[in-house]
Every structure is written in structure tokens, then in C-alpha cells.
């Protein structure tokens, strides 16, 4: 029971305190109402046995905003920063510190105390040395509170709750004792019976989600209803039938028939298997994306409650393509989320044509919150965003976890992940399934095994790779003997394009791709296209559109010989079809993915020719080691793909399984999985911010105000980009950069417009090595984004690729 109270205070009456500025319509935002709403929502999100603790945390999370100095700063609209999170954390811990609690509840109190102290910043570790509230502790803060009003508020909400002292001074005087209690609790807390199950930050996710939803005036939504899923499924099946008829008419009937048989096997396996982790390994071009969509919709249609479909892909271009496929095939609204994505305008019609299924949004910034929190029936996002949700460095990132509860999660092309994070990802997915009731479908042509991962049950395998006689021989891969120079690659690629049709050449680095492209483009009888990461997004999208136009009907027979010279950007997410393909030796999984772009739909009478070659630069160096740095992966690739041998598609997939076993036998992953156990003991920094891909060292973004060649300077601008330029009334491309560092402009934007502007910036931005930027830009080390000085340095055919220096190892890392 909360005790009575006496005494005066130097604060603003609690009932008059505000949580944030009044709304645009003049509606006030009382602090008491906000705390109560967050407490109730956090309790609703909590699992059994945790509701009371989450409710208290919600009621206390912004208690520090009742400080007089915080309220004065809010009213003035500016002023020195006033810490507030530490007060709620301190009061929360003080409430329960004197109560005898079971170990599981003591653990929850410790973690929630950390969450309260960090709910606007980084998620700290829970350790005996690091007391959560000490970072913002201000002894004078207690004198600024209307403690009597606060106690009355809490007493009304928790009439049977733990007792609070009569005065804030009395509570503040306990700080030294509470530090000792904190350390004692941490030191004596026993390990949970199953440490892995306690490693993910669910308490932070639920608390932050409740806070952000109420502050943004967004009503959360549970996902797609069974009725909506049934309607989408019906439309998808009609779309699939029409697609199969089209492929048959284009000469891919045999492939369509075999694809259909494989897909039916997968459907039967899906209906009979008992997950929650499913594996779908099928050849490239077998229709996995649409099949996974069908499986997910079928499951939701048969559910008894709404569920969310979340589709994860490695790269932005694949996310964008999949989102459009879902809209076209199902008519459903899709939330597309990546760092360049923009929130949907609630006033606009649904892009897919289906009735709008959106959460209630009451504020201009609500649409941004809807996107960041994945509050939509169908979400298509990147691995980067998913890692930030599951393994957040900052508390605000964790709110996305609540969207994963009971979700169907499709993970496409997971083999693209950096090798060290593969096992942690699978372990995290299994924990997600166990803790949130989610179902996970991993799919690729090249799925690695799960070494050292502790699963509650074996994954359900929906389809084994088909035997050779059951799958068309779409390509034949030959490992060439001897070293190939730039001249050799160019000569062989041009000959193949003239003899066989559209040809792709995939190199390991930007510098290599540009060098080979320039050698091929010197032949006037051949169309050549360059594609790599030293082009900004608008330029890359334009190049891909050009290739699709040149390929015409998709059979791989353009009007003129065509060679596309690329980096690994074509290996996942670019649905192009070539009659011949050359791949610089990489690692085996990468080369199998690349080969899947050859005779993709089995339309050719003979298998496509895929050649793997050892590329050697003019100085005799092998650039493979700069991209594929794991020596074990390279050595096992060379062992299982020796020069002078050839394999069919299915033989290569079988060989890939042996390759993976060898790799993981030599590179145990158990040490990395220990991170989950350490996180369960409080060391969240072991997992916080883990990235899905190898990080690019010594790179910074450069703004490139170029949108086309000199004779057509706006050729690459698409409608959305032009719309953003018009929206911000920007007179020239150069002026976009000026606005970025115009404090009056950027500081005056609300969160949604700020995201819109940064989206516009991103369309003209390239990540480049710092050494190169010091040559090409004004080079202001105080600025995160540099500006290209001479736009003539940006080529309409190779972007900034010619400036990537071969001696700089950074040139090998970005796609």
C-alpha cells in the first residue's frame, strides 16, 4: 500500500505536467495520462506473470519529466538538456528492492531497471559495477518534484502496490543503500534454467513499444486476418497460373512443369511439418519467392487469429522487387522498410488495390512510427533492419520485436550473411520462434548447415535438392585452368556474347569490374553495361532497367551482343537471365548463386555455359583475398571446385553440401554462440548491434549531384525522386547538399519530412574509401557526408568506379 505524504515541494503540480508539446490542434499531452496509458499497454504486451512489473515500469518510465526544469524546457521549446530517465529507473528499483522475490522476478526487475534508465539511449549491460540510474543522477532533481502529487497518482493506480516513502528526500537518501542492493542482487542472481531463452531483450521491446505507440498516437495492429489472407491467397494462385501460362508460351514449358512438381512437394511438406523452423533449399529460378508467399498466406488463412507476414532479404534492391511482387500478386498493402524507405501517406490509397489495412494514425509523425515499428500486415525489410530489431544496440530499435510475435518470417538468401554471424542468426531465430510463437522459413539455393546451434527440435526440411533426372540441366559449370587476365576475360566474354547470347561477367571488386568493362566496351560491335557499388542508387536502378530492356523477352537473346560486367550485386535480388556467364573465383556458395542467373527459366535447348576462372591483375595479384577474407572458405572452395572439372547444376548443389560440412568442421561456431549465454547473464553488449554483413572500413558517403549523362542530365530521375525534389522546392541537384548542412532548413523539419529529405539525399550518395574522397571532394572531416567537387569525375557508365584505387583494400568490400 502506498503510504500517505506530507511536506512542500519546489516543483510544478504533477497534474499540470506535460509529457510533450501540445498537439497541432491544441490538444494537451498530460504526463499522468501518458504514464497511465504506457503502463496499461505494456501490461497488455507482457507475457503471463510479468504484467504487474511491466505496468509499473510504464507508469514510471517518464516520471523524471515531472521535474520543474524539464517542464520549463518543454514550455520554452529549447534549453539545456534535462536528464529524466534515471528517476523512473531509481523509483522502480526502490519499489521492489525491499520485497522478497523469486529469482525470475528479481531478474525481471533488474532488467526493467536497466530498460527504464536506457529507454532513450543505448541498452547497457546489467552488471554489479554499472548501476543504471547513476549515469544521469542529479541529487537536486528530487527537490523539483511534486512528490505528493506523484504518490497520489500512483496510489490510485496501484492501491495494493509496494509502499513509497512520505517524501522525495527520504527516497533519495536511500541511494547508497540501493546501490548495495543492486550489486547484491546481480552477484547472487542464479543463472536461469535455460540461459539461451533469457537472452533477447523482450522487456525493453515491450516497454519501448508501449511508450512510442502512445506518444505517436498509433494504435498497434496484430497483422493480417485469416479472411484477408484467404482473399490474398486466391488472387495469388490466379497470378501463379497466369505466370505459368506465360512461361510456357515463351518456351519454358518443361521448366515450368518441373518447377510445379517441386513446389507441390514443398506444399505437402509445409502442411505436414511441425516447425517452428523450416528449411527450403531449391534451385535458383524455382519460384521460391512466390511459393514462400503462398505458404505463409495459407498458414495465416488457416489460423484462428491475425498474424503478420515479414519477408527479409539481404539487399535494398531485392526488398523493393519483392515488395512490388507481393503487391502485384496479392493486391495487398506492403510496408517496405530500409534506410531509404519512406512511410506511406495515410491519405493515399493502398498501392496493391486491396482495402486499406492500416493502424490508426493521429499525428503527422505516426506514419513514420508505423514503418519503424513494422505495424502492417505484410512487411518486407532488410537483414540490417531485422538485426537491429532482434539484437538492438539502442532501446528504441527494440520496439520492432513486438511485431515479430506470432509472425511468419521468411528469410531469403541468408547465405549472403557474413560467415561469423550465420550461427548467431539461426540461434536468434530459434529463440524468436520459441519465445514469440513465430514461424521461420529459411530459403535459398545454398543453405549452410547449423553447426553448434542449439535447437529445441530439428528444422523441418520442406524439400531436398531434386535428383538430376528430375531437374533440367540449365547450366554446366566449368572451372577453367590457368590464370585469366583482363584481356582473356574480355576476349572470352565478347566471343560468348556473339556466339551464345546475353553474357554476364561477375568480378570480385569494383576496380576489377571497371577494368574488364572498359576492355569489353572498346569493341564497337558489343553492348556493354557496368554495374557495381560505386554508383549511387538512382544510377544502379537505371543500369538494371537498361539491361532488362536490352534482354527484351527474357530469353537471353538481345538484338545485339550484350555483356553485363558486374560485382556480386547480381548474385541475389537481380532477376536477370543470361545465356552465358563468367565468374571470377570466389567462394563456392557465391559462385552457385551467380550460376543461377544462367538459363534461369530453362528456355534454351542446351545447358548454359558457366565458367569460373582465376582472375589475376596486371601486377599478378589475386583480389579474391580482399573480399573473401576467411582462409578456410577459400581453401575449401578450391578443394571442392578444382580447375579442369565440370559439374551440372544439381551436382554442384550436392558438392556444396560437402563444402559446407568441411568449412564448419574447420571453423567451429560455438564460441560465437556463447554470446547468447553471456547476454542472458547481463552482458548485452556481446550481442548488441551485431551486423549481418562485414563492415566497410574507412569509408564515408559522398554526395554526387548527377542524374544522367551530359546530353540528358535528368535521365535517371524516377517519379518518386522528382516528387521529393518538387516537395522541398529544391532548385538544383547541388542544392540538395546545401540543404543538408543548412541548420535552419534541416532543424525545421519534422521527423517525417526529415526522413523524406534523407531519402532524397541517399539516392545521390555513394560510399567510398576515405583516401579517394580526399581527392574528389572538398574534404571537410567535420562533415559525415562529403560533396563531389567536379561532377565530370562521375561517369555515366562507371560512376565513381574509375576512382577506386586497386591498392586500397576498401575497394573490394562494397558491392
From TrEMBL:
SMART domains: AAA, DEXDc, HELICc. One of its GO terms (biological process) is defense response to virus. Coiled coil: none annotated. The chain crosses the membrane at residues 82-104. GO terms for molecular function: ATP binding; hydrolase activity; metal ion binding; nuclease activity; RNA binding; RNA helicase activity. Residues 24-213 form the HD Cas3-type domain. It comes from the Bacteria. Keywords: Antiviral defense, ATP-binding, Helicase, Hydrolase, Membrane, Metal-binding, Nuclease, Nucleotide-binding, Transmembrane, Transmembrane helix. Residues 269-449 form the Helicase ATP-binding domain. In the N-terminal section; belongs to the CRISPR-associated nuclease Cas3-HD family. In the central section; belongs to the CRISPR-associated helicase Cas3 family. This is CRISPR-associated helicase Cas3. It comes from Candidatus Hydrogenisulfobacillus filiaventi. The lineage of its organism: Bacteria, Bacillati, Bacillota, Clostridia, Eubacteriales.
